[in-house]
Amino acid sequence: MSPRRSELGDALRNWRDRLSPEAVGVSTYGQRRATGLRREELASLSGLSVDYVTRLEQGRSSNPSAQVLTALARSLQLSRDERDHLYVLAGQAPPRSGVIDAHLTPGVQRLLARLEEFPVGVHDPAWNIVAWNPLWEALVGEAAGATVRDRNIAWRHFTGAAGRVVVDADAWIAMEGTIVADLRASRAQYPNDDGLATLIADLRSVSARFDELWQSNEVSTHVAARKSFDHPSVGRITLDCDVLTVHDSDLRIVAYTAEPGSADAQKLDLLRVVGTQRLSG
């Protein structure tokens, strides 16, 4: 076993041991020999097999991909410095300057876990959704079970993908302008990000409307709005949509809220109960 593989395994075990199941929303039953996460729990959170996590910790697997390292860093709630150290131990270069960093800091993960009362999603500067809570998925409906491209807000909008958001003609035009202008600002901020460049090129190829707006050179960022959804269980629901940007990462926390006591707040309460299930009868 190489020293680097041994160090990687030691680091993964230490980070796993320090993280309580409660911190990542894992339910526990009965007595546990250790207070930290089990291998199978880390594997489930990261979308990896238990065997693969075991081989990494035992130094029997080398060269994990950037996707694997990103998933592990997120599941282990590593700081940015720890995330970069994980990359180095795995023989990978940490994300470089000018490239979108979709790393979820521990603080953002705790915020996402605490805001169970409202639908909350986290997007990167290319408007790919990178994390969400259950109520977000219950409201939006297409957060999980699709490819990264299919979950991208810009791609969905300009390719006419089906969704639950309801907007009138004027709001539709304004939304288009905001999305394109926001992507233009991101492209200037992250000139070395191949994924963002490919997304923009593909959008210009498949959507004449996107290409027209792209050539207008308008630059702005999306901040807040009101959005209506046609939900199969609770009907039409209109919510305030606020976008909060995380300092030093440019992640966007998108939160939907309703005025207390309003009909929309009552529908949001109902949505917390029915979740993603349609009401019977």
From TrEMBL:
<dbReference type="InterPro" id="IPR010982">
    <property type="entry name" value="Lambda_DNA-bd_dom_sf"/>
</dbReference>
<dbReference type="InterPro" id="IPR041413">
    <property type="entry name" value="MLTR_LBD"/>
</dbReference>
<protein>
    <submittedName>
        <fullName>Helix-turn-helix transcriptional regulator</fullName>
    </submittedName>
</protein>
<dbReference type="Pfam" id="PF13560">
    <property type="entry name" value="HTH_31"/>
</dbReference>
<dbReference type="InterPro" id="IPR001387">
    <property type="entry name" value="Cro/C1-type_HTH"/>
</dbReference>
<feature type="domain" description="HTH cro/C1-type">
    <location>
        <begin position="32"/>
        <end position="83"/>
    </location>
</feature>
<dbReference type="Pfam" id="PF17765">
    <property type="entry name" value="MLTR_LBD"/>
</dbReference>
<dbReference type="GO" id="GO:0003677">
    <property type="term" value="F:DNA binding"/>
</dbReference>
